[in-house]
Prior knowledge:
- By secondary structure, the chain is mainly α.
- It contains five helices and no strands.
- Helices cover 77% and strands 0% of the residues.
- The radius of gyration is 19 Å and the shape is elongated.
Amino acid sequence: MKKGVLAAGAATAGAGLLATRLSAVSHGPEEKSGRLTPGDASILRFLAAAEILENRSVAQYNELGGIQDSEVPGGSGSPLYTAALKVLDADMDQYIHDNTEDELTHEVFINA
């Protein structure tokens, strides 16, 4: 438990340092408009980066086992993988697809 708390503290401190570093490095026009503080803009940049990474990981999962359609771009699916997922849950391909679509909207929203 102690190691978990220390790891969480280190991750939080690392995220804080990253946000501070990003804030010190770049100040875009949105930060000078008076609507965002430099710290708020840094937090949003950090969250945007996290959403991009999360979206890329679930998109790869969708490419393997999700429903392939025009709502979520990419992938041709893997029939063997999808069949194996259906053994676990008959609606797994739909869940993967919907989750991927949700993550895409999160990325678009936070970057707006």
